[in-house]
Amino acid sequence: MSFAAIRAPLRRQALSASFKRPQLRTSSFRKYSTEAPPAAKSNTGLYVVLGAVVLGGGVAYYLYDSSSETAKVTSSALKSAAQTAKVATNFVPTKEDYQKVYNRIAEVIDDADDYDNGSFGPVVVRLAWHASGTYDKTTGTGGSNYATMRFQPESLHGANAGLHVAREVLEKIKQEFSWISYGDLWTLAGVAAVQEMAGPKVPWRPGRIDGFESHVPPDGRLPDASQGAPHIRDIFYRMGFDDQEIVALCGAHALGRCHTDRSGYDGPWTFSPTTFTNDFYKLLFDEKWVWKKWNGPKQLEDKKTKSLMMLPTDYVLTQDKSFKKYAKAYADDVDLFFKDFSAAYSKLLELGVPTQQFVASEAWIMQTVDEQTS
């Protein structure tokens, strides 16, 4: 008997035995849930496992419609179980499917006209970073698994100002590839942006699920640019990073710029803000930095051209003994920086995701657009 033939009776039996099915708000459900992925290879036990997933999906569908927080927690657990079941039966999109998403991301981030030097790449990297960097290793909350920045409490956190630009850009891709979760989309976009802007290859794998507003982490888990070394360590140690990884991740400031209407700070860190280099570290040590005289928050500017900026948290890397050791090493060796950034960024993007949800035991290396056309 085919799976299609048994699916409807199974769902009716499960639903009638537990509760009456209320009228469902399907538009809300579709907005925040990941649709079924493309068909994949067959598996001997697939129908049995998928039967359980369909039953769980029917329950999750009902629970999503409920306003009960307990119901939403249960629904998330069911979605996690469904993702795990898909992994177990290979009922997941292939690497080639995700490569197609990567390629569309590469096209979209370059179609920025005059926005920030003509690229959405830097703001997309920041979105992936901030969507993942809320993880707390003690409580196991936060991280990229639930893509909670879709919800207002987190989207309005001060550290996330301006990230609506990246979310709106990527929403177009979500509509085109509706089967991908927001968490996978945002983190894959962060990888694509780094790689397409001449940065290192970043190992990545899918498996994140979309959650609810109740999963939103508290404000204050992302770095405050006005603080010093103790604050930086508090933020990054909470996520599970050490001093070397902290300094490596700070190298993402080779990209993009600050905006007065977002963070209050102003200006780019480097002369090539759409190319991933180790210039952030080189400039920290090679330029003379002075405090900028202006009405905005405390920041530094290069004495020579007054066109570059550094945040107080950036300058700490030249003052703290442990941080300085790694920052100087990265300024002197771009290959070392690329290697260490790649490892730390890949780790960052996986924070908060249960291992059993990933579709592969080892992360993938996605090809750049140039590699596919050469």
Automatic annotation (TrEMBL):
Protein name: Peroxidase
Main location: mitochondrion
Domain Plant heme peroxidase family profile positions: 166-374
InterPro entries cross-referenced by the UniProt entry: Ccp1-like, Haem_peroxidase, Haem_peroxidase_sf, Peroxidase_I, Peroxidases_AS
Organism domain of life: Eukaryota
GO molecular-function terms, A-Z: cytochrome-c peroxidase activity; heme binding; metal ion binding
Record's keyword terms, sorted: Heme, Iron, Metal-binding, Mitochondrion, Oxidoreductase, Peroxidase, Transit peptide
Family label: Belongs to the peroxidase family. Cytochrome c peroxidase subfamily.
Reactions catalysed: 2 Fe(II)-[cytochrome c] + H2O2 + 2 H(+) = 2 Fe(III)-[cytochrome c] + 2 H2O
Protein's GO biological process: cellular response to oxidative stress; hydrogen peroxide catabolic process; response to reactive oxygen species
Organism: Suillus discolor
GO CC terms: mitochondrial intermembrane space; mitochondrial matrix
Localization per record: Mitochondrion intermembrane space; Mitochondrion matrix
Enzyme class: oxidoreductase
Function: Destroys radicals which are normally produced within the cells and which are toxic to biological systems.
E.C. numbers: 1.11.1.-
